[in-house]
Amino acid sequence: MTLNLTKLYISNWFYLAAILFAVSLPFSIALISISGGLLLFTSLLQLNKEQLRKTFNERKLFLFPIGIFFIYLVWLIFTNDWKWASYDLRKNMAYLILPAAFLLGPKLSKTQYKNILYVFSFAVVLSSIITLVNFYLKEDHSILNAQHYGFMHHIRFSLQIDFSLLIFVQLLFEQRKLLNIYQKTGIVLAVGILISFLVWHQSLTGIITLLITIFIALGNWFFKHTSPKIKVIGAFVLVLSVLLPAAYLYYAVNRYYTFDSIDQNQLSELTVEGNKYSHDLKKKEVENGHYVWLFVCDKELEEEWNKRSDLKYNTLDKFGYNVKYTLIRYLASKNLRKDAAGVQALTESDVSNIENGISNYLLADIGLSLYPRIYVSIWELDSYYRTGNANHRSLAQRIEYSKAAFSIIQDNFWLGVGTGNWKKAYRDFYVSSNSQMAPERYGNVHNQYLNYMVKFGLIGLVLILFFLFYPVYISKEYRNTLFLLFLVIMIVGNFGDANFETHTGSNFFVFFYCLFLTPKST
User: Fold this and answer.
1) Which of 45, 232, 302, 312 is the most buried (most CB within 10 A)?
2) Are 443 and 429 in contact (CB under 8 A)?
3) Is the model's pLDDT at 369 over the cut of 90?
4) Strands 286-287 and 108-109, sheet pairing
């Protein structure tokens, strides 16, 4: 009996390492590295040398993703900066370690394969719940700060949520006859938690990726049906799935650009207390449609604010923002004049918001609302196109990073700048173009495909795409709907960020890519 149990335990080491890896993804970067090493170690430990040739022939497609790591090695011939070259190699070790582990490891059963998917999905749910509890226990003042909470970067985690939602939906539909009412309720609850968390976490990349993935999934499902009625319903649902988000975006943009009507001749010159107002008509900044630099009495603002707060008017808050400007913008957002009366009209909650660097009362919402994130995105773009200043504005900085990438690609179209040289290439562009970006804000493009083009040129990008999609085509695993939609998530998500240039993003993708491709025993 003991011998049998030992054999059972040993035979499951690789599987247990895979379970640990799946659990690590939404929780710990360090644990991802450890479990990745364990995955390779257990594959070598359980290596069947007698069956090695047969195993290699069955799984030789895993050599293709390993080829991506070798692209980084080959392009070292262009390297001038070995510090960042070694950084690139470390960040992309997943392309070497994980395919090698699945190439050499024991075959997983279909049950084990499904268990890994389910364990991962529930780990994502647990990570979401812990993040929510942590946020509300900290009594944070703005929903925009939600992105700073969690174990992983919000974009990487949002893509994990998207994939988990697909796993749960597939489980619910495929196993609906086998699941009892309690199991179905638990899955529906998990789906509700993840969708709510995705909106609460304010990750536009994850939300847009999910919407596009749903659109493709529904389109594929509806038009597989031969019934004309189903096709008509499908077309209606698909059109609606595009129109509803578009209508909400139109509403948000229209609401932002609905400004107060100003008659210069009717602007009050004096406050209630008889002090003179300042009206700067050249500055067009607005908050909720109200002009920021009209009806400003600096003297009254300072006196009245200093009565209400220990954080003085002409000082910086804990985030490095000037209290004066945060106060003026906040008053404008509430359509209050920037004088003593305006400050007196603020509630204690408003004062606390201003002290915490919140410049618009809408951004103090800590409920389930996507509008604050959309508002900030519109404000960032509006401010950027008016001033050319992208610093500390996420969306505007992405535009500057993209401009830099296109310029670098234009000069290095075929072969790129080489492994590790991208850091200097970006810095040289910002300096030579007299960019308004502060040196500490210099960064690389938030788009995986442009990122590859910068490093490896068109030739490198084509090779990488070939190494990724050729195994999918040859193995015919694209017929697995879940795998196909997983690829859609990653393809779309990589337009919004360079996910494969991060430790979590590359490991998340390569692990499940290999899991889908690996042969399963019955």
Assistant:
1) 302
2) no
3) no
4) unpaired
